[in-house]
Specification:
- The complex is a heterodimer of chains A (about 210) and B (about 350).
- Chain A is mostly helical and about 210 residues long.
- Helix content of chain A is about 65%, strand content about 0%.
- Chain A has one domain (about 20-205).
- Chain A is built from nine helices and no strands.
- In chain A, helix 2 runs parallel beside helix 4 (about 100-115), helix 5 (about 115-130) runs antiparallel to helix 6 and helix 7 (about 160-170) packs across helix 9 (about 185-205).
- Chain B is built from 13 helices and 15 strands.
- Chain B has helices at about 5-15, 20-30, 30-50, 60-70, 75, 85-90, 95-105, 130-135, 160-170, 200-210, 265-275, 280-290, 350-355, and strands spanning about 115-120, 125-130, 145-150, 155-160, 185-190, 195-200, 225-230, 235-240, 245-255, 260, 295-300, 305-315, 315-325, 330-335, 340-345.
- In chain B, the strands form three sheets. An eight-stranded antiparallel beta sheet of chain B has the order 4-5-8-9-15-14-13-12, covered by helices on one side. In chain B, strands 1-10-7-6-3 form a five-stranded antiparallel beta sheet.
- In chain B, a hairpin with a 5-residue loop joins strand 13 (about 315-325) and strand 14.
- In chain B, helix 1 crosses helix 3 (about 30-50).
- The N and C termini of chain B lie far apart (about 85 Å).
- The chains are: A mainly alpha (about 210), B alpha+beta (about 350).
- Chains A and B meet through helix 1, helix 2, helix 3, helix 5 and helix 6 of A and helix 1, helix 3, helix 4, helix 5 and helix 6 of B.
């Protein structure tokens, strides 16, 4: 799972050397990075935390919501949520820190997925072609184009700003965002404000400047 | 007093209770700050609209998927059926993306043809030892071109072995003697056929090579834009769970992977791809050693986590995988175009006993 953080504090320290095989490569790939890696402290191989279902049921909608705000697609957001919970399942992240950890992980993983822009664009076109419920082709294209622009803009934001923005708009309080990103609540406001201004400027450059 | 910071003004927009009284009082009487708050409000609304998504999240479905795919990692790790996670997710996973590359690279030296031509049909399995470093280096399919999912993974629970057989056309496995500690009746799942296409792109490969500081060798004629199609499934699985709902033993069967080429002689493509920068040399060497008849299914084995050894199941060559920490064992083999996997939180002897006793 891609839980790369760029400079900020990580939700859970440690580097996993015992991730499941499907995630093992990514874990290994991340472990090579120099710019900070957010990986949960691994449990013994094969061990799965007993509180997983409880945490899942209480946090899954929010985790999907975080990823969906980045990706603009519920389906892909659910894929990201699965990746995130997979990592969490084998982690030792304290249950009290789980909502924040999962949200940050979902934001980072989803932002990392944005990198595969070419594949994404292809799939969107395919999805657009197959969407018989779309009332109007022009509207569909416009919606897809808008989503693409939003994601492009998100991808251009500094990572910390993008994560803070998405978390705040996913319903996390300032205190929760602050705790999850190891920021002061005041810094959360500043970071979110900058991200929103940048997003508006990127997507709607003719609007009055703040 | 000084004007409050931007962040404080932003917080006034949607969490005013978190702003100190003196700051709020100041803003109330400061046109400059009020204008800043209004601008922040506008940008926040704009961002909220841009990021808004309509979601109707199905928690039960999500949990079912996780408990099957993620929680049962021990049984999910090496399956080639694509049972537990979507093909698309798997394409993003280096192990599976790697497996896709491996499957492509072991295709047969078939002649070119105008239509899809079967170039690879798994009739046996062979482990490919992969280190952590290999996984880091192993290129994603997207490093070589464009991957597209044609038929996505659809996993469904079915009520019985008979239902699973009816849906897939495969014989459901019957286990008469369960290993110690595994009890009860299995749950059955089926997965429809999964297929994807891969289009080789010289430009993409060149770009990938460049990022590694390498120069792409000149692609052979006809390779650029040539397409390959990979298919696997349908498949079925019988899963015995322990009390917490985690899989204790699973037996899965699926129509073994096949690959098709849109026309390029596959030996040409394979030899070229094996020469590309990015593929770890020891992996490439293992792949070169495979028979060139396109019937060997490579099973990636992360060597720091697992060991593999040759065995047999009822006279058919099979590969036994064991986690180095002893938490799981699995055996995989291909017979008559069907790949079967038996795996679980059991010992190697137990998994082999189940495999050899399948009805």
């Amino acid at each position: 799972m891609n839980l790369v953080q760029h400079g900020e504090a990580v939700p859970a320290a440690g580097r996993s050397s015992a991730a499941p095989a499907d995630d093992h490569g990514l874990t290994a790939r991340l472990a090579e990075r120099k710019d900070g890696v957010a990986l949960a402290t691994p449990r013994a191989r094969g061990a799965v935390r007993v509180d997983l279902e409880e945490v899942f049921r209480t946090t899954y909608p929010r985790v999907v919501g975080v990823a969906a705000r980045v990706l603009g697609s519920r389906e892909e957001a659910e894929d990201v949520a699965q990746e995130v919970f997979l990592e969490f399942a084998r982690s030792s992240v304290p249950v009290t820190a789980a909502p924040g950890w999962l949200s940050v992980a979902a934001a980072h993983t989803a932002l990392n997925h944005l990198r595969s822009s070419r594949r994404r664009a292809f799939r969107e076109e395919a999805a657009g072609r197959g969407d018989s419920s779309a009332p109007d082709v022009a509207e569909t294209i416009e919606t897809l184009d808008e989503r693409r622009r939003v994601r492009l803009a998100l991808g251009r934001l500094p990572r910390r700003q993008a994560v803070a923005l998405v978390l705040r708009h996913s319903g996390l309080s300032y205190a929760e965002v602050a705790e999850a990103l190891h920021l002061s609540p005041g810094s959360v406001g500043t970071t979110v404000r900058r991200a929103e201004a940048a997003l508006r400027k990127e997507l709607n450059p003719h609007a009055p400047s703040s | 007093m000084h004007h409050p910071a931007d962040g404080t003004l932003r917080r006034l927009v949607d969490e005013p209770a978190g702003v100190a009284d003196p700051d709020r009082e100041h803003v109330g009487g400061c046109p400059q700050c009020l204008a800043e708050v209004a601008a922040a409000q506008q940008d926040a609304t704009f961002a909220g609209t841009a990021l808004d998504v309509a979601l109707d999240t199905d928690v039960d479905a999500g949990w079912q998927r996780l408990s099957h795919a993620a929680v049962g990692g021990a049984t999910d790790r090496w399956q080639t059926t694509g049972r537990a996670r979507p093909w698309r997710s798997r394409l993003r996973s280096p192990v599976v993306a790697g497996a896709g590359v491996l499957a492509l690279l072991t295709g047969a030296s078939a002649a070119a043809a105008g239509d899809w031509l079967q170039i690879f049909s798994a009739e046996q399995v062979a482990p490919v030892t992969i280190t952590q470093e290999d996984l880091v280096e192993l290129p994603d399919l997207s490093a070589y071109g464009e991957a597209e999912v044609v038929e996505r993974v659809r996993i469904r629970d079915v009520a019985s072995a008979a239902s699973a057989e009816k849906v897939t056309g495969l014989e459901a496995p019957r286990v008469d003697d369960l290993p110690q500690g595994v009890t009860g009746q299995p749950a059955f799942e089926v997965v429809d056929k999964v297929s994807g296409t891969f289009t080789f792109s010289a430009e993409e490969a060149r770009r990938s090579a460049k990022t590694q500081g390498e120069t792409l060798p000149q692609p052979p004629a006809g390779l650029d834009d040539s397409r390959f199609r990979l298919e696997v499934g349908p498949g079925l699985a019988a899963i015995w769970s322990e009390e917490r709902g985690l899989p204790a033993l699973a037996v899965a069967r699926a129509v073994a992977p096949t690959a098709y080429s849109s026309g390029v002689p596959f030996a040409t493509a394979r030899d070229y791809l094996l020469s590309l920068p990015g593929l770890p040399e020891n992996v490439a060497a293992q792949l070169r050693s495979f028979s060139a008849d396109g019937t060997t299914l490579p099973v990636p084995v992360p060597e720091d986590l697992m060991t593999s050894s040759a065995t047999e199941v009822d006279g058919v060559d099979a590969t036994l995988l064991e986690a180095r920490d002893g938490t799981m064992a699995a055996v995989i083999w291909v017979e008559a175009g069907v790949v079967t996997v038996v795996a679980g939180s059991v010992t190697d002897d137990e998994v082999l006993a189940v495999a050899r006793g399948l009805g």
